[in-house]
Write a structure and sequence with these properties.
With 209 residues, this protein is α/β, with parallel strands linked by helices. The chain has a single domain, classed as 2-Layer Sandwich (BirA Bifunctional Protein, domain 2). Helix content is 24%, strand content 30%. It contains 4 helices and 11 strands, in the order βαβββββαβββββαα. The strands form 2 sheets. Strands 1, 2, 6, 7, 8, 9, 10 and 11 form an 8-stranded mixed sheet that branches. The chain has a 3-stranded mixed sheet with strand order 4-3-5, with no helix packed on it. A hairpin with a 2-residue loop joins strand 8 and strand 9.
Length: 209
């Protein structure tokens, strides 16, 4: 697979990132650009997906960006790894559920390599960790598919500030918590982006026709 790997070293403005993703989507759809994996952090921002509800906003003073990805409202900020992609499914198995499973397995397999046990939940999309009986989300997934090209991606909480999540009902789920990897383990996660990229590309091979 000929996928461009891009890594941004400084936090990226959310709107600027969306413009770049949409531009790459157009190029890929016209067969004029490579598929993309883009690793970055965002400047602090709340984003609302296509199924968000105003009831999920607890602090009505916050500003948020509406986006065309799937899912509800969440928070992005420094210390959180954002894994964006533009992946062409036209020449692969056109199976959205399997594609979501590939994302889930990418995160689960990566965390397993760092000796952290996690799991997916069919009812509550994302990756979860059982913290002494309480389920806490460590990764959020939001994907959009346009003419069988999948884009947007997932976020993985590493050492981000969790306080902003108190201003919303993250992903519309009120009875579960949010955590980050540094609260769970003292492991060095500096190279986790490389593991995620490797696992994602490997898992994508399951979609090759």
């Amino acid at each position: 697979m000929d996928i461009e790997i891009k890594k941004s070293t400084k936090p990226v403005n959310y709107s600027d990132a969306m413009k770049e993703l949409e531009a790459r989507l157009k190029l890929v759809s016209e067969n004029e650009g490579k598929e993309l994996i883009w690793i970055l952090e965002h400047e602090p921002v709340f984003t609302a997906g296509s199924s968000f509800s105003e009831n999920d906003i607890l602090d009505k003073s916050i500003n948020f960006k509406k986006t065309n990805r799937g899912g509800k409202i969440t928070y992005h900020g420094p210390g959180q790894l954002i894994f964006y992609f533009v992946i062409d499914l036209r020449n692969k198995k056109k199976d959205i559920r399997k594609f979501i499973s590939i994302i889930e397995n990418t995160v689960i397999d990566t965390l397993k390599q760092f000796k952290i046990k996690s799991h997916a939940d069919r009812k509550n999309i994302g990756i979860w960790i059982n913290n002494k009986g309480k389920l806490e989300k460590v990764a959020a997934i939001g994907v959009r598919v346009s003419k069988w090209i999948a884009y947007h991606g997932f976020s993985l909480n590493i050492n981000n500030n969790l306080d902003p999540y108190n201003k919303i009902i993250p992903c519309g789920i009120s009875d579960k918590g949010v955590t980050n990897l540094k609260k769970i383990s003292k492991t060095n996660f500096e190279k986790i982006d490389e593991v995620l990229i490797r696992k994602f590309i490997s898992n994508l091979k399951n979609l090759i026709v």
